[in-house]
Amino acid sequence: MGDKRVNFVFDLDDTMYDLMQPFKKAHDKLFAERTHADCEELFKKSRVYSDILLEQEREGKIAKEDAFYERLRLTYGDAGLTVKREEGDRFEAEYRYHQTRIEMFDFMEEVLDFCTEARTGLAVLTNGNGEGQRRKTAALKLWRWFEDEWVFPTGEIGYHKPDVRAFKEVERRMDFLPEDTWYIGDTYESDVTGAKASGWRTIWLNHRGRRCPVKVSEATEELKSGKELLPLLQCIVANTV
To answer: What pLDDT, on a 0 to 100 scale, did the predictor assign at position 51?
Structure first.
């Protein structure tokens, strides 16, 4: 690798682990018999609303305790299903329960082992409040690869992806150069857009097959499967001068 070091910054939700799993378990228990809507499509829609509502929460336009219900109300409302508040609260309780039992994608451990052995820079930048996101990192045992101070929930640093300031704060604290830094995430709007605007290179882990929201994707690399990630990172490291 010479005198340069490549840095890999990872998103957390649906990049390191299957975020759909707790959603599907709650959906199957509470709503599956009331709608014929495809669960994965509902999950994708909920992710879009989650980002919108997280920004509204940050701006003080919606209370933190109302955000999850509003996300469900909008998601299922698009599918023609009315969700009452008490139903939303039961869904959230079920969802949070299964979030404590999340497991890392099978390809990700090998990826992180490689990054550690190659002595790349490593960090996590994830949208969400610190308490909730750090519960997830604990459940995934990310301490095996990441020091606590290498994990950046946006609720702790004060800026929400795709805000460039979130990425620049990681740069500052980790002493990363933007031209040497890659961001790996599953959501084009917050992950690719924000990282590219920060001067980082980007890997869009589009394993859900989402449609690109712009005419021509500006991701440096787009992957359709997590299995493609390790060979790509190995190639990046090998070509870092």
So the answer is: 82
Q: Which helix (H) or strand (E) holds 114?
A: helix 108-117
**CA 86, chain centre distance (Å):** 28
The residue whose two tokens read 């609720």 is 155
Which residue reads 């609303």 in tokens?
49
Which pTM was predicted? 0.86
Percent of the chain with pLDDT over 90: 86
Write down the pLDDT at residue 2: 43
What rounded mean pLDDT belongs to the chain? 94
- Helix residue ranges, H only, 190-228: 193-197
What is the rounded CA–CA span in Å between residue 175 and residue 121? 9
Write the CB contacts of 11 (distance below 8 Å, at least 6 apart in sequence): 124, 125, 126, 183, 184, 185, 186, 187, 191, 205
Cβ–Cβ under 8 Å, residues 107 and 230: yes
Listed residue (129, 23, 12) closest to 76, CA to CA: 23
Q: ω before 162 within 30° of 0 (cis)?
A: yes
